[in-house]
Amino acid sequence: ILGNEMLSIGRSPLGALLIVMAALSWAAGTVFTKGFAWQLSLTAMVGWQLFFGALPMLAGAALFDAGNWTVPSTWSLLALLYTVVIATFMANLVWFRILQLYPAGIASISTLMNPVVGVGASALLLGERMGPAEIGALTLVVGALATVHRKRESA
């Protein structure tokens, strides 16, 4: 799926390292979350996680974009509200619910639906064309997820 773009990873070793570090930290967080007996409600846990996760981003914004602050428009604030409430909070709430219901390995496989939804939404909402390769790849992903889920149901 990456094609020739895979060859460019060597030109940006820091970028490749950051990708691997992000994947490892996400995996470690998933295993930690699954293995810890939380006393908080799911909603509270997600809220606190997002709050503490936002702190380094705010610090980075203040450090690297100190002179570029402007008053946001109404549409920008609405887009931010959507991103925080729907795209981030609700997605994390669903993710942690999936993590409660399934083993970490099975739950992690569910994230493979992200590109399926993204590519499908871009085709429906933006009119982007999907070729046979994209349709085939997405079909394989959905088929693999259905297979894993069916095995889980029958076990």
Characterise this structure.
- The longest helix has 28 residues, at 74-101.
- The chain has six helices and no strands.
- It has helices spanning 13-35, 42-64, 74-101, 104-109, 113-126, 132-154.
- The chain is an all-alpha fold.
* DSSP summary: helix tally: 6
Cα gyration radius (Å): 19 Å
Residue windows where pLDDT falls under 50 for at least 5 positions: none
- Strand content range: under 5%
Morphology: globular
According to DSSP, the number of beta strands is 0
Largest sheet: none
**Mean pLDDT, all residues:** 86
N-to-C order of helices and strands:
HHHHHH
Helix content: over 70%
Report the structural category.
Answer: mainly alpha
Note the gap between the termini: 32 Å
Structure described in brief:
The protein is mainly alpha-helical and 155 residues long. The protein is 75% helix and 0% strand. α2 crosses α3.
SSE topology:
Layout: H1 13-35, H2 42-64, H3 74-101, H4 104-109, H5 113-126, H6 132-154
Helix pairs in contact: 2-3
